[in-house]
Amino acid sequence: MNVLIVDDESKARSLLSTILKENSAEVTNILEASTLLQGVDLIKKNKIDVLFLDIEMPQHSGLELFDFISIESVNFEIIFTTAYSEYAIKAFEFSAIDYLLKPLRPNKVKEALGKASKSLNQNQLQQRLLELKNSLSSDKFSKLALPVEDGVLFVKLDEIYVLEADGMYTTFNLTNNRKILISKPLKYFSDLLEHKELFYKPHRSYLVNLKYLQKVVKKEGTYIEMENEMRIPVSKEKKEELFNLLQDLQ
């Protein structure tokens, strides 16, 4: 496996290179670049399998990569590294693009490299990168990337009725009576979607899209009726908050 590390800090490149050598027998060749443009040049001249790309660099941010190469030409996995870019992290999660927070930890690097290695044979990288580029350029997220058995499924936020907790899994209840079980806990998606668009968590086990709310029933315990006929309980501590929210939306 050929790895390219692009980071303006020599110590950061050296640390990551050492971690890779000590923790992955798959890595056979490591190239380094201190600027994005140097990295682009190496990408064009070499076969790269995995790119570790720093975000915060002088002259050109790692997020400007697609200003210099086309998404269609990318046939390698990208793992972004960052110290703080909160908005970019949100975009990565929506697009199922991996990232590592600095300071880098060997176990996290090994885990990310393993995921990248498995993804190399999947053909959805370009779509994921396109979603990432669109998210970063528009300041809006219109789709959510969901890891499924044979790759990544992109679901429009408007297609989501209800997310339902199922242990460490989450069931997506979608338009057209579709259901998808995803191997991530509800909290992961709540952190991404709650307070975003019209998503609201009326109960610890549910996240709903208020766009599809049909009725709030105040008998036998308060519950929400959705357009797909699902009944979602509202916890006691969330009743007042929900009613205030609905008034604000009117």
Fraction in helix: 25-40%
Instruction: Decide which structural class fits the backbone.
Output: alpha/beta
Task: Tally the helices.
Answer: 7
Shape: elongated
Which CATH class of the largest domain is shown? Alpha Beta
Biggest β-sheet: count, sense, barrel?
A: 5 strands, parallel
List unreliable stretches of 5+ residues. none
Identify the CATH architecture of the largest domain. Answer: 3-Layer(aba) Sandwich
Instruction: Count every beta strand, where a strand is a DSSP E run of 2 or more residues.
Output: 15
For this structure, the CATH topology of the largest domain is Rossmann fold
Write down the oligomeric state: single chain
**Strand portion:** 25-35%
Mean pLDDT: 85
- How many distinct domains? 2
- Which strand order do you get reading across the main beta sheet? 2-1-3-4-5
Q: Radius of gyration, rounded?
A: 21 Å
Q: Please report the distance between the alpha carbons of the first and last residues.
A: 56 Å
CATH superfamily of the largest domain: Response regulator
Give the SSE string. EHEHEEHEHHEEEEEHEEEEEH
Description:
The chain folds into 2 domains: about 1-140, Response regulator (Rossmann fold, 3-Layer(aba) Sandwich), CATH 3.40.50; about 155-250, LytTr DNA-binding domain (OB fold (Dihydrolipoamide Acetyltransferase, E2P)), CATH 2.40.50.1020. The mean pLDDT is about 85. Helices cover about 30% and strands about 30% of the residues. Helix 3 (about 85-95) packs antiparallel against helix 5 (about 125-140). It is elongated. It starts with a strand and ends with a helix. The protein has helices at about 10-25, 35-45, 85-95, 105-120, 125-140, 185-195, 240-250, and strands at about 1-5, 30-35, 50-55, 75-80, 100, 145-150, 150-155, 160-165, 170-175, 180, 200-205, 205-210, 215, 225, 230-235. The protein has a 5-stranded parallel beta sheet, sandwiched between helices. By secondary structure, it is an alpha/beta fold.
